[in-house]
Specification:
Length: 117
């Protein structure tokens, strides 16, 4: 039998910082996904780390999205740095951009090369 988080003890610690919905999501993430219950002490330590991040909600969301059992502010800031270094979608070149570079203006959006007269 798997242990579960005692939500009655942990929710009052998490809700003031994360809100009810995200607090429940963190508990579910720990219990179901990670199979590691969140203790009162672990919740208190997590709240300290969430607050160190400056944006506790974003930190908790990152924890869930990255599949982390817990969060440390240093991990969160490392992820922000990695995200800043990754090219954004608008900066990525499309196949159409590459075709225009290769063929010039004679390459239209329908993919058919035309002859310039």
């Amino acid at each position: 039998m798997t242990k579960r988080t005692d939500a009655e003890k942990v929710l009052p610690i998490l809700i003031p910082v994360l809100g009810e919905e995200l607090a429940l999501a963190i508990i579910e993430h720990r219990d179901i996904v990670m199979r590691v219950p969140l203790t009162e002490m672990a919740a208190k330590l997590q709240v300290k780390e969430y607050l160190k991040c400056g944006d506790p909600v974003a930190a908790a969301e990152t924890q869930i999205l990255r599949g982390w059992r817990a969060i440390k502010s240093s991990w969160y800031f490392n992820e922000l740095e990695k995200d800043a270094r990754r090219p954004q979608q608008s900066q990525r070149r499309s196949a159409m951009d590459a075709a225009r570079d290769l063929y010039g203006d004679s390459y239209h959006d329908n993919g058919i090369r035309t002859i310039q007269h």
